[in-house]
Amino acid sequence: MEEHYDKIRRGETDIVLIAGNAADRLSGLDPLFQVEPGFNVLDIGCHEGFILERLVRCGAGVIHGVDLHRPSLAAAARRLEGHPALLKHLDLCEGMAGLRRELPVSPRYDLLLYLGIHHHMARQMPADALSAFVNELFPLTGRYLAIRTPARFMEVLRQEPVMRRFRLVHRHDQNPNLSPVEIYEPI
Q1: 115 CA to centre of own chain
Q2: Which among 105, 107, 148, 153 has a CA at the least distance from the CA of 127?
Q3: Structural domains for the chain
């Protein structure tokens, strides 16, 4: 598995281990599409931008997105053409230092999307580095934090100290082909 991620880092492969189409990616996120226009978004692991495209139609203002897979970022840029989204190639194993270097990180994002990325990072980063990353990242949430990751990774993520600052407001696990989505609000 690590070899796969190394090939993506080096740009040696266009193949990425991704499951799901646009409908799958949007599944369970309906509460996020009800936010008033002008909201700002940080999408960690934005992939091809299906979710960001939908958020633009819902009135998103500032959009920041990062992903490791360059072809996916190019697809996201095409999908968001005409919107001033800032999409950056980033190896998230660099943690918050890399994120702050690549983006003018907002003190708070109305929506922080952490969808389908945690289990990939857990395979690439030492547990303490990943813990430090999420404990520094999640406080950037202004209104909603959306997480999608397999249950065994979610159980560990829920134990992070930062999660005591959030309360679960929505859980969607009705699609048997996908990991559940959990949406949190800061307390």
Answers
A1: 4
A2: 153
A3: 19-186 (3.40.50.150)
